[in-house]
Amino acid sequence: MTTNTGKDGRAFPDGLRERWREESVASVWRRPSDWYHPAVDALALAVLDDADPTGPAWELGQARGEYGVGLGEALDDLVCLYRSTGRPTPPMDAVRALGEGWSDAQAALVTTGSCVDPETGLPTRQYLGVRLAEAYLRAEEDDLDAAMLHGLAVVDVAAGPVTGLVRAARSAVVGAALRDTFGTGHPMATLGGGVFVVLTSVGSDVDGRLADLRAQIARRCSDVDVRSATRQPVRLWVEPLPATHAEAVLRLDRLSRPEPWTGVPRPSTGS
After folding, report:
1. What is the DSSP letter of 120?
2. What is the pTM of this model?
3. CA distance 54 to 168
4. How far apart are CA 208 and CA 195, in angstroms?
5. What is the CATH number of domain 144-255?
6. Can you tell me whether residue 199 is helix, strand or coil?
7. Which terminus of the chain has a lower count of CB atoms within 10 Å, N or C?
8. What CA–CA distances, in Å, run from 15 to 49, 51, 108, 224?
9. 230-240, strands of its sheet edge to edge
């Protein structure tokens, strides 16, 4: 069997990298010229050796994030690697590591912003996409429909255009209420424009939590301006997850609202 040499000098079977690239470019990768990065070699070697893929997957995720590759594209590319070796899906630890590497790269790029919204302290839509990918892969591994396990709880507090300071205060109120109500066990994100979403688990008393959330937001809106800028009552509903991760990401895009930045001071993202 002929071999190629990885970046660390080790040899691995000829054709794996090419099969991976061909599978990815033919199905998910947008620009063939920027697919290769030295980090792919280390991950390919780990997969072939049945070694721990988390370190190489994190490095590849970081590289993808630094080069401006979208998270969905990077995760789909990871799936292509495992498919090229005859495995239908990557293991969860590899998915999580790649997502964390991508998120860390994004957080380090001040020019493209952080994965944490500065007003609410909640993750952004892009980070929630990582957690959604994990949910879909876990459901696929268990041969289940993701909608049987999870739903998307949507929170809409917007009551019309608001000034920068009032919007920031309202966002902080909702962020604190969401964290207190759902805790760290339920991934959540801000979608902009007063819309927030939580990835819920079926059977976790979602209706009760949403009722508590509505009450918490009402209690926290003591400032008159914040209260007048907050929908009364707050709109809350649960949407079932669609069939695929790609459709779920599109659902988040549909639910999101652009922030009316024109004439409104942006929140500081630090330096």
Report:
1. T
2. 0.57
3. 37
4. 20
5. 3.30.70.270
6. strand
7. C
8. 15, 19, 34, 66
9. 188-192, 195-201, 150-158, 230-240
